[in-house]
Amino acid sequence: MPKKHRIAAAGALAVALALVFCFANCSKQPAAETGPIKVGVILPLTGDAAVYGKAIKNGIELALAEQSGDQRARASLIYEDDQGQAATAVSVARRLINIEKVPVIIGGAQSSTAEAIIPICATSRVVLVSPTATKPSLTRMGAYFFRLWPSDDYDGKVMAETAYNKLGLRRVSILYINVAYGVGITEVFEREFQRLGGTVLTKDGYNQAATDFRTFLTKIQAVNPEAIYLPGYVAEVAQILKQAKELGIKARFLGVNSLYDPKLIEIAGTAAEGAVFTYPTFDTASQDPAIARFVTAYKARYGSGPDAFAAQGYDSLRVLLRVLGGGAVGAEQIRQALYSLGRFDGPGGFFTFDEHGNVQKQLRLLTVKGGTFTPLN
After folding, report:
1. Which of 75, 111, 194, 373 could covalently link to 135 via disulfide, CB atoms 3.0 to 4.6 Å apart?
2. Burial 172-211 (b: 16+ CB within 10 A, else e)
3. Are 98 and 224 part of one and the same domain?
4. pLDDT score recorded for residue 72
5. 277: closest CA among 241, 305, 306, 242?
6. Same domain, yes or no, for 277 and 167?
7. Which CATH number belongs to the domain containing residue 317 in this structure?
8. Looking at the domain assignment, is residue 26 inside a domain?
9. What is the DSSP letter of 164?
């Protein structure tokens, strides 16, 4: 055989062998797609909001522990502590995205931290699933954002209608925490209450971690409202209730879901009596099989009963495990799978996502009566 023909034959053989190798191996998924999918988790594990972050983490860990071996291998969790601070949330989000290369993050538990990291996730095309952020405007900030807690558009509207129609209130004051969450829900409540015919006499914001509210309360006392709306976190709201009682304020107190915390009664005592607040449908006494199983498993693992924040954490990972188990790998696949999820049942209540990533689920009304949390009749 001439030399040039031998060279050509050798080249053809090499190509053929390469094709055989490719057909045998190239059809397989890359190792990165068959191994665990990295899931970032950004929560307030220290700081003023740590009570919520730790409950959410407990729920996430329980959801992971309950999965089968194959499903558990689909998620590798990487935790970061945002300390409840927007600047810290930005820093750890960038680390998860740029260094860990996560396609999805569970985080932005507070509206202020979610507001800080949604643009980063949107620009990087990383899915962000918030267990509990509620500020209405978050929806418009990025196409990769989903939330499992109803927007303040709904929460504030429910409380405004309850105050005006159910409780017969006409004159209220508002004392809110001056972070994204407090500002957002205040705007909704004020707008809806005034639309119904009510009057907002005063409106003031205080800094997170504040401890002395007497100046605000003295101003409120001077206008004598029928009720005071307190969108904020339990640490500050409990002190507000105590100090209001010390000043002799007789107004009804209205609040938000963060009041459903044993610390409210531990700190405020009888000053919390009669407070009314919204809360998701999660109820530890429910006979619903999904809720009962979750409560039993949570108590067995942690030695105490769960709250709604634990249920939200549980559902946030379970919904991701559902789509990851269905084959979603990259951020775009995860995003599309969440949009097409349909109805999802969990202890936090059954829900669906709308076309904007907002969750659709119901709220209920609770009050403090005899030192315990009970449904508002």
Report:
1. 111
2. bbbbbbbbbbbbbbbbbbbebbeeeebebbebbbbebeee
3. no
4. 62
5. 241
6. yes
7. 3.40.50.2300
8. no
9. I
Encode pLDDT of 58-92 as tens digits: 999 999 999 876 666 689 999 999 999 999 999 99
Are 231 and 188 spatial neighbours (Cβ–Cβ below 8 Å)?
A: no
Residues 254 and 117 in one domain: no
> Burial of 58 by CB count in 10 Å (0-12 exposed, 13-18 middle, 19+ buried)?
buried
HSE-up of residue 16 (Cα within 13 Å, Cβ side): 6
Instruction: Give the torsion sign (CA, 246, 247, 251, 254).
Output: negative
CA distance 167 to 4: 97
Euclidean distance between CA atoms 245 and 248, whole angstroms: 5
Taking alpha carbons only, the member of 327, 236, 280, 216 closest to residue 59 is 280
Mean pLDDT check: name the lowest of 170-184, 218-232, 263-277, 347-361: 347-361
Residue 24 in domain:
no
9 inside domain: no
| 72, 76, 82, 84: CA torsion to nearest 10 | -10
Backbone angles phi, psi at 370, to 5 degrees: 60, 30
Quickly count: other Cβ atoms within 10 Å of residue 21's Cβ: 10
Model confidence at 24: pLDDT above 80: no
Partners of 42 in beta bridges: 80, 107
Residue 17 lies in a domain: no
Segment 22-30 long-range contacts (CB within 8 Å, at least 24 positions apart): none
For residue 292, what are the domain limits? 37-151+287-362
Instruction: Give which of 121, 25, 63 is closest to 335, Cα–Cα.
Output: 121
User: For 313-329, how does the pLDDT look when each residue is reduced to its tens digit (9 = 90+)?
Assistant: 999 999 999 999 888 88
Tokens of 307: 């709250």
Please count the structural domains in the chain: 2
Is the domain of 162 the same as that of 268?
Answer: yes
